[in-house]
Amino acid sequence: MPWFFKKKKPQNSLSPKRRELVEYSRKRQLYDRVRSKLSNLAFMLSNPRKTLEIRRSIGPYYVRRAKLTAIKHELSRMLAEQGLKPARIFSRVKTTKSLASKIDIQKRPANRVFREAIGLRIIARNSLDCGKISASIKSMMKPENLLRFENYIKYPRAYGYQGIHLVTDYFGYPVEIQIRSLEMEKKVRELDDAMGRFENSPEKARRKEFDKIAEKTEQAVKEARQKLNPKTFRHNLIFVFENSELPFDIAMNVARKLLAENAIDKRAFEDLRKKLKKRTQEPE
C-alpha cells in the first residue's frame, strides 16, 4: 500500500494522569446530567399540579430550549457584527424542579424566578471585553426591556464573586445573561469545587448565609451613616462589623464596597481593618 494511503495514528499529548482526570470529568458530567433529568422527572410525576402551573406560565422544557437556542444564535451573530467575539457562550434551561424549589423552598417571587428560567453565560477574554459586551447588549434593546442589571465586577459579592448579570426581555421572552471573563470563570469553578456543587451542600448553604449577613451589614452601615454624626458613626461601624460574625476576608469585601460607594471614608475603613485584623489574631 502506498504511503499516502496509510492513516496516521493521532498523537495523544496528554499524560496518563491527565487523561484519567479528563475521563473522570466526562463521566461525572454524564452522571450529573442523568441525575438531574431523573430527579426532574420524578418531581413532575409526583407534583403534576405544580408542573402544570409552571408550564402554563413559561411553557414546557422543549419550548424553552428552542427559544434559548434561537436567542443564542441571534446574539452571537449580533456581537460578531460589532467585532465582539467571546471565548465561549454557554446556555442553560432550568428544570421544573429547580424553578419550583426556588419558589417554595427559597420563598422567592414567582415572576422573578420565571425571568431566570432560561439563561446564557458569555465568557469574554478579559474584564474590558465584559464591559464592552454588556454595553453592546444594552444598546441592542429598548430601556424598558432591561428588567434587571447588576455589575458585580465593580462591586464584587461578599465571597469575591465577579461578573455582570442582565435580565432582558429578549424577543418577548425573559432571559438571564451572565458575563464573565476567563479568569472570573476559573475563580467561580474553584469556588464551586471548594464549596460543593449541589444545593444540599452544607458549605454552599453556609456561603449563602454569609451573603445574607453581608447584605444586612451593608444596609445597617448605610442607615447608621444617615442617623449618626461622624465620631459616633465610626464607633458604631466597628460595632456593627464585630457583631456580624463575618470572616475577615468577607467583612473586608463588604467594607471595600462601602468605601467605593462613599458610604464610609478612608479613615473609617482603615480603623475598621485594623480592628478586625486584631480580632482575628487574638487567641480564642
Please characterize this protein's 3D structure.
With 284 residues, the chain is of the alpha+beta class. It has 2 domains: 21-198, Beta Polymerase, domain 2 (2-Layer Sandwich); 204-281. Helices cover 61% and strands 12% of the residues. It is built from 11 helices and 5 strands; from the N terminus they run H-H-H-E-H-H-E-H-E-E-E-H-H-H-H-H. The protein has helices at residues 16-46, 48-58, 61-81, 96-104, 110-115, 127-140, 182-195, 202-227, 230-242, 248-260, 266-281; strands at residues 88-93, 118-124, 146-151, 164-170, 173-181. Helix 2 (48-58) crosses helix 4 (96-104), helix 8 (202-227) runs antiparallel to helix 9 and helix 9 (230-242) runs parallel beside helix 11 (266-281). The longest helix is centred in the first third of the chain and has 31 residues, at 16-46. The model has no long low-confidence stretch (mean pLDDT 80).
